[in-house]
């Protein structure tokens, strides 16, 4: 069995994320994954109607998610910028 340390979530610094966005054609996916965290498949199924910019939430409906539950993902200030 692997040690618990092997399962730590890793994050990118804003500098590394900026480089990824500059050199990838799917920069919207990179930014959403980097600052909000939905899975790539969930992002592919999103519609702009699920993004509540005023309420600063992204709704991941149960039919679009890996799990059978609806999720609200916060839109953080970095994502807005």
Textual characterization of the structure:
This protein has a three-stranded antiparallel sheet with strand order 1-2-3, with no helix packed on it. It starts with 13 loop residues before the first helix and ends with a helix. The longest helix has 10 residues, at 14-23. The chain is globular. With 81 residues, the chain is α+β, with helices and mostly antiparallel strands. It has one domain (12-80). The protein is 36% helix and 12% strand. α1 (14-23) packs antiparallel against α2. It contains four helices and three strands; from the N terminus they run αααβββα.
Q: Which structural traits does this protein have?
A:
single chain; 81 residues; alpha+beta; 3-stranded antiparallel beta sheet; 3 strands; globular
